[in-house]
Structures are given as structure tokens and as C-alpha cells.
Specification:
By secondary structure, the protein is an alpha/beta fold. Helix content is 32%, strand content 20%.
Amino acid sequence: MRFLRYALPAIVILAAGTAGGYLAYRNYEPDRVRFPVRGIDVSHHQGEIDWARVAADDVAFVFMKATEGGDHRDREFARNLDGALEAGLAVGAYHFFTFCRPGADQAANFLATVPDGMTTLPPVVDLEYGGNCDRRPTGAELRAELDAFLAPVESRFGREVLYYATEAFLADYGDAIAERPLWRRSIAWEPGNADWVVWQYHNAGTVDGVAGPVDLNVLKKGISSLSSPGRRTGARAGLS
């Protein structure tokens, strides 16, 4: 009984602290004065989206998954693209880069899927381990295949690709790959290095018009900073 007398208050305090931490995470939002331009990124995992409601919920831009590897196309991409454009959002498309298919094949898949002149934001290549194949190329091998993807995609769009790259990926391959602007993932914490253009700050946010959790992002600058070719930044700029 003496143990319970002392243990129960500690358990209550711990539970309250855990609940408070969870609520702080769920409600986290960057300073709206410093980062007023808010956006989301989506794929078929979000299901059917009501884009008019999304646009009315203080969302200005969206990056949507178009392709993965050499032949996979996101089944919601065409509907998402049409809906987001009709709602007046700035739109960009991304490709999940796999280590198990040639870069040229992946570029052909992306370019065959994303219509000319439909997107206003730069194309994105998603570089991460999660969901990728087990193969781990050397730095030189990855550089060659990624370059084979970048060349035709950047030629078509007339601007540099944006890297969405995790910290783990940059730590292993950041020195090997060509330099490009960075889209940083830093959940509920401002990126430690200031050299980024897009910041994904939440991976389970809520937005009107999206039935379940969705990734939330902000821009360092305005939409115009992404709507035209930008300066080159280091691929390792995301590392502190």
C-alpha cells in the first residue's frame, strides 16, 4: 500500500506529461509570421480529396505523388492534379526514386505521367530508404543513375529538381550526388540548417477536405520562389 501511495502520483504525472507531449506534437505549427505559406503533400494513401475545401483551409500549394520506379503510377495522380488545379492551388509532382531500376527508365515513367505545362512548382525526386528496395548502391552508382533521371526531367521542365531527402540518406549519399535545392523533413522541429526551400513539419496533420492524416509543409519564401528556376544549393545543406 505504501508503494501504491507513492507510485500512483508518479504514474499520474507521467501520464499527464505524455498526454501533454502528444497534444503539443499534434498541434505543432511553425510561426505563421515567419512561414505564412502552407501546403501539403499527398498520394493515393489520402484517398479522394475535396480540393475546394483544402484550398479554403489556408493551403496554398501541394506536391502530389506521380510515379515510383520504372513503371508504377499513383492511381490518384490524375484526379488530384485536376482537382488541385481547379481549386487554384500551386501544384507540383514528385517521383519516388528506387535503387533497383535504371534512372533513365524512372525518368521516362515520370515524364510520361506528368502532363506538359500543368504543374507550376518544380519536379521533386524523393530520396529515402523507407519503402525502397534492399539494394544499396555505391555513391558512384547512385550518382550515375540519379544523373540519368535528372537530365531529361530538368530538360523538360526547364528548372532544377527539388530533392526530398531524409537525413539518413543525406548522411550516406549527400557527398556523392549532384547539388540541388532541398525539401527538408523535420517533424515538429525547425530544421537546424537554414539552407532549405521547403520544410515538412508534420507527418500526421489535419486539413479540411482530407479524410485522414496528411503531411504538412511550409515554404521559406513565397510561391514565386518555387515557381521559377532557383539557385543551386548544396545537397548536404540539410545536415547540421
